[in-house]
Amino acid sequence: MLDALQEGFFLFANWQNLMLLGLGVTIGTFVGAVPGMTTPMAVALTLPFTFTLHPVSGILLLLGVYKGGLYGGSITAILIKAPGTPAASCTLLDGYPLARRGEARRALDIALYSSCIADFISNLALILCAGALATLALAFGSPEVFTLILFSLTIIASVSGDQLLKGLGSAAFGLILAVVGLDLVYGTNRFVFGKVELMSGLNFIPVLIGLFALPEIIAFFGRSESARKHNPLAGVGATLSDLKKTLPTIIRGSVIGVVLGAIPGIGGAPAAFLSYSEARRTSKNAANFGKGEIEGIAAAESGNNGTAGATLIPLLALGIPGDVTTAIILGAFMIHGLRPGPLMFQDNISLIYALFIGIMMSSVFLFVVGKTFIRLISRIADIPHRVLFPVVLVLCVFGAYAVNNTIFDVTIMFVMGLLGFAMLKLQIPAAPFLIAFILGPMLEDNFRQSLLMSRGSWAIFFSSPICWLFWGLTALAVFLLVRRNVGSQN
């Protein structure tokens, strides 16, 4: 083992690997920060450049892009309320209110610290617990994932605040829009109204950009000239006491991210929302969530980035990609003549150790690149809004168009922008819509797959201890919600 570890260190320890890893993190952070440019897109575009590289160098470049992309989405979510990734849409719930209070730098720092710590914990879990977590991942079938997502949806009541009925209505509308498109089970169209473009469903990027970024732009131009005075948002960075305050939240979110990341097909968004929900339930400042609470940012980013190393667990241990991005990385392995799985740990253990060393180093690069980006990009907050918002509008249009290169997506973005503005004026919370829209398809798919597996028997949802665990947690969450509402009325 020591010989293999030493050989792995020599495989990694050269300037080219370090440079490519740092370059990958930089590219991923930049791409993640641009609305519409997704992390899988960046990894896929980088893949051809790895063909002539050594397998370790090429795979580390792709892993750097992947890890940088997970963090980068939080930057625009905090600064201009335009999430670069679906998981970053959870970060904006508290990040953007903090930025509006003049504490953008503090919010960006907390997001970075949470991302780096969670990434490091996730990497440790990959190295130390790959076998155990891979076994746990195999225990999750469609019924278990359904009950997990159902439990995650209980956060809707929490983020609705005092507007519970409006929040439930918002979530219901989000679920309706989530089922637009082709029914993959029966092949029928749902809510497409003769539009071929709707058969593939509503893409989340135009919907999220329209729902969150455009209402701010419309509201700004609708205000009087005297109300348009610029208020610098950059502020000061996070303090050591901020980090100490959020550390328990970061660790809990990291664990949630590791567990959910090890389950193929879950991804960062459910992990971010579940982590946020648990942070709100256990926090002393629960009432401040959604209004600019740094614990909310820490929970969202740690849950999201906690999946970074964990998604590689089923890939390396079982040869099963955990999400779209790791599926692309699986392709990179195969291009270099490598097949992830148990045999790879026997035949190429030194290469595995080299990748493990690089993965641990990626957390350091993420911190360095993130700090540099914060210093540069936080100056966006000093640009007068009359200049910034037109630029943001152009970026929104570009981001919506870049997804499928169609004007239809741009139209969807503007329609959702008008809807978001109406919700803003009517004081209907947008967060429940967002949660339902992102988690809804996963809830439906696993529900229907479970019924197909059981030939219509609902008993399948109570067939394993994991299902019973999440049913119990869901019942507990509903009980606490009812007790809180009854207590507030009395």
Describe the structure.
The model is unreliable at 224-233 (pLDDT under 50). This protein has a two-stranded antiparallel sheet with strand order 1-2. Helix 5 runs antiparallel to helix 13. It contains 22 helices and two strands. The N and C termini lie far apart (65 Å). A hairpin with a 6-residue loop joins strand 1 (181-182) and strand 2 (189-190). It is globular and about 65 Å long. The protein is an all-alpha fold.
Shape: globular
- Unreliable stretches: 224-233
Which series of helices and strands comes N to C? Answer: HHHHHHHHHEEHHHHHHHHHHHHH
Q: How large a portion of the residues is in β-strands, by DSSP E?
A: under 5%
Instruction: Work out the radius of gyration.
Output: 22 Å
Helix/strand/pairing category: mainly alpha
Average pLDDT figure: 81
Task: Please give a quick description of this structure.
The chain is an all-alpha fold.
List the helices and strands and how they pair.
Elements: H1 2-12, H2 15-33, H3 39-46, H4 55-80, H5 88-100, H6 104-138, H7 142-152, H8 155-159, H9 164-178, E1 181-182, E2 189-190, H10 204-222, H11 240-261, H12 268-282, H13 294-305, H14 307-310, H15 312-318, H16 324-335, H17 342-347, H18 349-377, H19 385-404, H20 407-425, H21 431-453, H22 465-489
Antiparallel strand pairs: 1-2
List the main descriptive attributes of the protein structure presented here:
mainly alpha, two-stranded antiparallel ribbon, 490 residues
